[in-house]
Amino acid sequence: MDSHSWHYYYNCNIMSRKIGIWGILAIIIFAFLFLVCAPGFAALKPPLNTPEYHLQVSFDIPQKKIRGRATILATSGRKLIIDPGELRILELKNNGKKVTLERRQAGEEIVLVPRGLVEVSYEAALEKTDRNIIDDRDVILLGMWYPQVKGFCRFNLAATLPAGYLAVSEANHITQNDKGGEVEFVFDFPDPREESDGVNFIASKQWIVSKETFRNIDLVTYLFPEEAHLASRYLERTRQTLANYEQLLGPFPYRRLAIVENSHDKTRAMPSAILIDKKVLQQSEVERTPLDHEIVHQWFGCAVTSDYDRGNWCEGMASYFADHLRQEDQDYIQLRQRRILSCFQGIMQWHREFPLRSFQQRFDDASRAVGYCKGAMVIHMLRRQVGDQTFYEAIKRFFQANRFAVASWDDLQKSFEAQSQQDLAWFFRQWVEDIGQPRIRIDKAILQKADQGFKANLALSQEGQVKRLSLPVRFTGPQGSRSFTVDLNRGKANFSFRLDFQPLEMIIDENYDVFRKLAPLENPPTLERLLADRNVWVIPPPGQREPYRQVIDKLHSRGVRIKENLPQTQFKSASLIILGRDNPLLKPLLGETDPQNCPMMLKVRRNPRSSNHLVAVVNAAAEINAAAVDKIFASPFYSTYCIKGENQVSQTLADIEPGIRLQSDQL
């Protein structure tokens, strides 16, 4: 209980002796209405008089120093809070008068009541960190590098660098001014930004710039010489993606979008720009990069930001629109959704699940599974709940209502309830507030001959926390197919279906539209599932490690343990990675293996000694190329990998019949 609630509870106890039960009820109702209508339950939006923040900075690259001057025009008489972090404040003025700062602890905020312009001069020596980098080639500033103002501001940035640099920041328009041996970049960005989003700055001496225009949007790539030939492909992909998403989400929120390469493992979206890591550009085709995901973030994550204290919905939204709806191809979506369910199920065997409401950012496998995987499935189920037309109208409504604001799951719920005219409190409580991935069981299935056809009686139940589920059911036979949707809202329920043909098969949720656990026969063996197992052993062949050195190093870096020999009694207690077709442990476990038809093959299959574990067999005729190993582990969603040539990897998924199935002899 927080302090406000405790204070309210204490006063109610005192007053109950004076005003009786009806008075107490009135107070409770008033308190409930106050809490529901409190500002914390609505999107945080910029005030009418949003402070204007003008920032001028210059760089001493060899010394890794910044000198800056912030000029802030805020509403007079209203408290202004400035967070300088570890920056050294050189001078502070309020309405032209110098403000003497008391001795402050590092990181302590500055609280002012402005009477005009607030001016802050500062300097910073930035050591290389995860978020701030200054070196001879690049400048990347994503963390605390200027005094931040609590709340919303409208920013204008002018940055002076040595000649030869190019620079990118949030901007609808960039002006470049040459000043002898220096160059100044002025970034015009009129839209309000909340303090937690901050201002980012990237500069480099290496970029080659390519430009084109899509409608009234300037598209620009900043790529290093080695990847500059990819510019036309990235510009074309960006143009196509914007055209698609403008139909689904509404007009693009900015006048400019830059694709910016860096060599410091940074891939992220910022308003009007996307950072992409050099290694991603080198190893992936444009369709397989995170580009689409980060473009969706221009709408959801940049123009509308998450209220992180009340749950980050942006990653689930971006994952759904970028990965699910990259193409409305049913086979692709089916595979994608099964992969999500399999991934979540595998990870949560070894991690404690937490509510989607509690997800703020990805920091491990469990947080990724909740925020990205479950988040995307919740958006998909919301679409099924309200229907396609209402879904897209509600998405656009949500965007327009919360543009340049900080929104939460509650604001998403309000938009969907208003558009669909449905009470969706149960949906958001069940999938956002609660945890659990139910398993669907078929307890009984009986097919009977009936008048002019057949009658199928089906008894279903849920294992685990009971959810309100909308399950697709389809019957198929030589004479046709018939689809139904049943509502399984209890732990157990019976259903009857009338059919005008004799079915040979019944399939439940074949497209994986429901967030549920997969039955064993639905869940294909993949490298991702194997690596999610906490108990994995890699078993090298006796005296033949060298061809597998890269594989062993990669697995060791992921925490997989090496076992020189493993008793057969332990085959059922772990997932195994067996190196070499001649490994003496292979035949006792799997018998004769498939003949090898490629120089290096990795194949994942079920562990015949345990339904909870998997076995991977790796065979190589020569030492495996490190780049190929990286490529395999960057895409662990498949069952079989074949390396042909230095960097050519073909991959296939084990053929699994989708959905929970019953054949005719089981009906």
Describe the protein's architecture and organization:
The chain has 667 residues and is an alpha+beta fold. The protein has 14 helices and 36 strands. The strands form eight sheets. The protein has an eight-stranded mixed sheet with strand order 5-4-7-2-1-11-14-13, with no helix packed on it. A hairpin with a 2-residue loop joins strand 13 and strand 14 (182-194). Helix 7 packs across helix 8. Residues 1-40 have low confidence and may be disordered.
Low-confidence stretches: 1-40
Number of strands: 36
SS content category: alpha+beta
End-to-end gap = 53 Å
Helical run tally: 14
Spatial strand sequence of the major β-sheet: 5-4-7-2-1-11-14-13
Radius of gyration: 29 Å
Q: What portion of residues belong to β-strands?
A: 25-35%
Q: Looking at the structure, what is the overall shape?
A: globular
Share of helical residues: 25-40%
- Main beta sheet: 8 strands, mixed
Please tell me the overall pLDDT.
87
Can you tag this structure with a few keywords?
single chain; 667 residues; alpha+beta; eight-stranded mixed beta sheet; seven-stranded mixed beta sheet; 36 strands; 28% helix; 32% strand; globular; disordered N terminus
Indicate the topology.
Layout: H1 3-37, E1 52-60, E2 65-73, E3 80-83, E4 88-94, E5 97-98, E6 110-112, E7 117-125, E8 132-134, E9 138-141, E10 148-149, E11 152-162, E12 166-169, E13 173-179, E14 182-194, E15 201-204, E16 208-214, E17 217-223, H2 231-249, E18 256-262, E19 268-270, E20 273-277, H3 278-283, H4 291-299, E21 304-306, H5 314-324, H6 330-347, H7 365-386, H8 388-402, E22 405-407, H9 409-420, H10 425-433, E23 439-450, E24 453-463, E25 469-477, E26 480-488, E27 492-499, E28 505-508, H11 527-532, E29 536-539, H12 549-557, E30 561-562, E31 575-579, H13 586-590, E32 600-606, E33 614-620, H14 626-634, E34 640-643, E35 649-652, E36 660-663
Parallel strand pairs: 1-11, 17-18, 18-20, 21-22, 29-30, 29-31, 31-33
Antiparallel strand pairs: 1-2, 2-7, 3-6, 3-10, 4-5, 4-7, 8-9, 9-15, 11-14, 12-15, 13-14, 16-17, 19-20, 23-24, 24-27, 25-26, 25-28, 28-36, 32-33, 32-34, 34-35
